[in-house]
Each structure stands twice: as structure tokens, then as C-alpha cells.
Amino acid sequence: MNKFFKTVLLTGLFVGTTDILYAYVSIFIQRGKFSEKMFTYIAAGALGIKTALAGGVWAAFLGMFFHYFIAFAYTLFFFWIFPKIKFLSFNKYLVGMLYAIFVNLTMGQIILRLTALPPPGPFNVSETFVDWIIFGIVFGIPIAWNAYKYYGVKAE
């Protein structure tokens, strides 16, 4: 397996896993119990809610596939644009946080609106800001960190 693909794959798996763990912890904090249908709900974006809920384990596996596919796609996109845009080699922490905000906004304001899921709720600045900070730590910074390492960029 070539080094680029291996790095992107492992980074995508890592950020996909930390993202879903954050989602489970967040739901647990909000509701006092873990979500049993998280991946099924993700599959509902393609299948619709009723079909996904009736799909059982297979719908959950489809949701897991979609989740990791999206994490991998955003990771691949960052690794692809990183050497093309000089600004991205400025500071891996700031760039990682900004990339997480970009991912969050494109997912919430564009991609989720194209699915069979109900549209996201209103934009709440305080909740969104906290989500951006945590998402930056579990998603954006690891992607930037690994891209900096892969491309041999020494900037902090």
C-alpha cells in the first residue's frame, strides 16, 4: 500500500472514530443514556427514517459505512489541497480548527440539507462554538497534524 493512501486511510479512520465517540458522549451528556440508533440515523440520510429504522443491523452498518466514508473523504480532500494552498502550512493547530469549522459548516448547511433527514435546527452560536472547539480537537487538528507530518512541514 503506498504511503499517501495508508496515511490518509489511517487518519480518516482515527478522526472518524474520535468523531463518533464525541457524538456518543455528547448524546449521553444531553440525554443521560447512549444512543442505540446513531448509525441507523446516519443511514436515514440516504434511506429515510422509516426505512432505516426498519433496516435493523444492515441499516446500522450502512450508517457506519457512510460515517467513515465521509470522514475519509474530508481527510482525503485536506491532504489533496494541503500542498496546493500555501496558507495551510501556517499553523497546524489553527488550520486544523479552521478546517473543522469548514467541515462542520459544509456538512450542516449543505450536505445534510441534501439528505432525507429533517433540516438542521437554527444556528445557535454558543452551542455551535463549543461543537467547533471539540470538533476541531477530535477531527481538524489530527488531520492537519498528519498532513504536516506527511508533507514534512515544520511550521507550528
Give the structure's gist in a few sentences:
The protein contains 6 helices and no strands. By secondary structure, the protein is mainly α.
What are the main properties of this structure?
156 residues, mainly alpha, 76% helix, 0% strand
Question: What is the element layout, followed by pairings?
Answer:
Elements: H1 3-31, H2 38-47, H3 49-54, H4 56-81, H5 92-111, H6 125-151
Give an account of the 3D structure:
- The protein is mainly α and 156 residues long.
- It has one domain (3-151).
- Helices cover 76% and strands 0% of the residues.
- The chain has 6 helices and no strands.
- It has helices at 3-31, 38-47, 49-54, 56-81, 92-111, 125-151.
- Helix 1 packs antiparallel against helix 6 (125-151) and helix 5 packs across helix 6 (125-151).
- The longest helix has 29 residues, at 3-31.
- The mean pLDDT is 92.
Portion of residues in beta strands equals under 5%
Query: What are the low-pLDDT stretches, counting only 5+ consecutive residues below 50?
Result: none
Q: How many domain modules?
A: 1
Structural class: mainly alpha
Number of helices: 6
The overall strand count is 0
The percent of residues in helical segments reads: over 70%
User: Mean pLDDT across all residues, rounded?
Assistant: 92
The backbone outline, from C-alpha atoms, is globular
Give the N-terminus to C-terminus distance in angstroms. Answer: 29 Å
